[in-house]
TrEMBL record:
It is a single-pass membrane protein. This is NADH dehydrogenase [ubiquinone] 1 beta subcomplex subunit 5, mitochondrial. It comes from Mesorhabditis spiculigera. Keywords: Electron transport, Membrane, Mitochondrion, Mitochondrion inner membrane, Respiratory chain, Transit peptide, Transmembrane, Transmembrane helix, Transport. One of its GO terms (cellular component) is mitochondrial inner membrane. Belongs to the complex I NDUFB5 subunit family. Coiled coil: none annotated.
Amino acid sequence: MPALSKMAPAGMTMARYGPLGLLQPKSQVLPLLRFSHAHLFRKRPAQLIVNRIKDVVHFYLVGIGLFPVFAFLTYNHIYHGTCELKDYPTEGPPPAYWQFERTPARQWWAKHFGLSDMEHHERNMAYHEKIGIIGRWRQLEQRVKHLEGQRWDYKAWHYQPVSSTWIDLGRYNALQLRDRYEAHGHYTY
């Protein structure tokens, strides 16, 4: 049996092309023996990483992120509905800033993450004060540059008094460097 299986390709070639078929080059014989018409597995770029990223983004964005939020908001809107407008209370403590929101979900968000009107106003005022100070500094710098150009002036160093101990220390370090032959050791000659 093994001998017949070894002889089968040669027999097919002889049956198709006659005795001269064995003298044909192998490149023409092999496709005939495979009976194939095209490559089944073409080379193409790998998509494993791209598909993995899409799967992870879809899972975390839709599965864990958007769907539960929309489900909670739908339940909240159906069960609680919108808030009712009531008269401003004259007795008891004044209402908190987050109680003026329309829905319970917005009230919860404003209570835990939102800013009160007073805090928003204070932050806004601090921001505008900072911008004003920076603007005044910029005006002063522009005025100084203008006067420097008008008077042909320039920035210069100013004098700082030096003590004698620093002069003595500098002279000591200079003598040490002058007398040292090697930076890492002293070799005798």
